[in-house]
Amino acid sequence: MKGYRGKWALVGLLMLMMIFASACSSDKSSSEPKDNGGKKTENKEPIKIGVLASKTGALESYGKQTLRGFELGLDYATDGKMEAAGRKIEFIVEDTETKPEVAVQKATKLLEEDKVDFLVGSSSSADTLAVLPLAEEYKKIMVVEPAAADSITGSEFNKYIFHSARNSSQDAVAGAAAIAKKGVKIATLAPDYSFGRDGVAAFKEAAVKLGAEIVKEEYADPAATDFTSNIQKIVDAKPDYLFVVWAGANSPWKQIADMKVQEKGIKISTGAPDIAALSTMEPLIGMEGFTVYYHDLPKNKINDWLVEEHKKRFNGDVPDLFTPGGMSAAISIVEALKKSNGETDADKLIKTMEGMSFETPKGKMTYRPEDHQALQALYAIKLEKKDGVAYPVPVLIRELTPDETAPPIRNN
């Protein structure tokens, strides 16, 4: 009997071991890809991208342009399949209302509830700066577009941030190249928040290097509609040029014209804005400055596709100032996913994206390894009147190469 009981005890022990092994195997198969002849199967879960944009608020038009470009970019980069490395791509759009506190709420929702793999955005530098710490906290790649504050890849930088948009220093280099030289006196006008102050600081640095003197820095409330006091202080400083850094629908152009600033011998220079704002710049025809983009300036097949496809989808409208930026952000994400074979682990993506070059409507861009700023072309232009066009048109003087517009590395 003792041998019999021992035999059945051994059988029972073997059965328990088989059950335990089976349970362990079951648990493992639920959390890891199944083994298929010694090879792990690919992850087929959809890749989710959370897009933050100003669908309402002062920068609503910028949000609209970026979203159109982002969707077109995903379409272009995936050949219309909306997938990368065999994984479907989904994107979820949230309106920041151009308010930093709302941007944080919406980003948190995308990260915690929607479980997105990437963040993209936002239209406002203030919104974007408020969200940057969340990318680090949740260890998710955030592609910043179109916010331009230098501090995004400078003092507030973290390794999860990739800045596909140009930054204020790139704008500044282009703007300074257009007007600054030895003996020239320049005043500046900008909105009183990070975008404006970063823009002026970068412009001042570039202009002074070229020998110019900054005689007045004037900052206005970002929501202002009356710039009379600001403009008068600039007139009193008697500069040769007024360089304007601005974003938003409430631009100062009409009051600059009404106060006859140019008739007082002060030339105006700025970055040529989107088409809606160009319509208010009739008094500035002949102005020399720069632009981030105008639809007929870049000469490449991606921009040709963008212009043609945009017209088809949006009632004949051409892509606007920030449309190619949205497209470039999308292309960079898809390109990274192709290189990572669909892997969305942030640390692996960082290694993939640092130094990565990708083709865009503005030509080749490269994420600089040191600060993840996208090096890119900008355009020196002159505003001219063209027959059949209802607004002053940016006409190319010359393309400024990515090397020419490369900004200082500011993230220490």
TrEMBL record:
Residues 26-45 are annotated as: Disordered. Transmembrane segments: none annotated. InterPro entries: BCAA_transport (IPR051010), Leu-bd (IPR028081), Peripla_BP_I (IPR028082). The keyword Signal applies. Pfam families: Peripla_BP_6. Keywords: Receptor, Signal. The keyword Signal applies. Residues 1-23 form the signal peptide. Residues 29-45 have a biased composition (Basic and acidic residues). Residues 46-385 form the Leucine-binding protein domain. Belongs to the leucine-binding protein family. This is Extracellular ligand-binding receptor. It comes from Neobacillus vireti LMG 21834.
